[in-house]
Amino acid sequence: MLKFVKHNLETIAGVEIYPIISLSIFFTAFVLFTVWAMTYSKETLNTVSNLPLNDEESLTEKHNF
Asked: How far apart are CA 50 and CA 9, in angstroms?
């Protein structure tokens, strides 16, 4: 099975650039998300992480809905 796919990909001109492009896009996104997560406010993270545990009454009191 892999022989058929490999043979078809070898016949396409310039196909070797696609793995490089996809790896660089993934790596850039990974670095950006990591930097974003490390610089996110601890207070905001605590608030967001406790949202599923809060009942509706405490949500309306805190946010004045």
From this structure: 49
Residue 65 has pLDDT above 50, yes or no: no
Alpha carbon distance 14, 46 (integer Å) = 48
d(CA 45, CA 52): 13
DSSP letter, residue 54? S
Find the largest Cα–Cα distance for the chain. 65
With a CB cutoff of 8 Å and minimum separation 6, the contacts of 51 are 59
Task: Identify which has the larger pLDDT, 55 or 59.
Answer: 55
AA letter at 37: A
17's tokens: 């650039």
**Distance from the Cα of residue 24 to its chain's centroid:** 14
Give the mean pLDDT of 27-43: 93
